[in-house]
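for ur thesis appendix - ATP synthase subunit c. copy paste whatever u need, i formatted it the way the template wanted (i think)
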Amino acid sequence: MELAALIADVQSITAITVGILIGAGALGTAIGFGLLGGKFLEGAARQPEMAPMLQVKMFIVAGLLDAVSMIGVGIALFFTFANPFLGAVQQAAGA
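the 3d part is after this line
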């Protein structure tokens, strides 16, 4: 198999992996926000006087949820633009 075909295979698999990585991060964040919002509304309905304190804690956890998905996007961008696997393929092919 020639070098161009190997590079194309690595790039295509990397593109699929990046899509799965971003999609899984978005799905996990969406589920987390759904659970977080539901529990916040349950707690605020049960004890309305605690709603401001619960809201502050909800926003802190929401920020952490967003941070996790942004880390996934950063890793996906790294694999997209500075693919470390291409260097290994070129080195193995003797280029």
